[in-house]
Amino acid sequence: AFFVDTGTPGMTVSRAIKMLGGQLTFEVSFEDCRIPAANLLGTVGSGFAPMQVRLTRRRLEMAAWSIGIACRALEMLIQQANQRVVFGSKLADKQAIQWWVADLA
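Above: the chain's sequence. Below: its structure in token form.
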């Protein structure tokens, strides 16, 4: 692994890519880019393992984030079903809605 300063000749930031959660990542390409040995992190050929750890951690973060959003959506659904009146009764009193909520929970 290595780090490259912005503006290094041969490094091009092509485009921003929107990711889940509103985060941005960037497409970076290198063509005839010379990187000083001082910019090396660790040893040559050993960059995959630390990045694999980071990717695993990020996947867990995104899973937890997604579960949190799903839980909040379920809470909002229950709240709306208890407040909304349809054909003279609460939406939450309808058996089909109760099954739906039970399946989601």
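The first strand starts at residue 11 and ends at 18.
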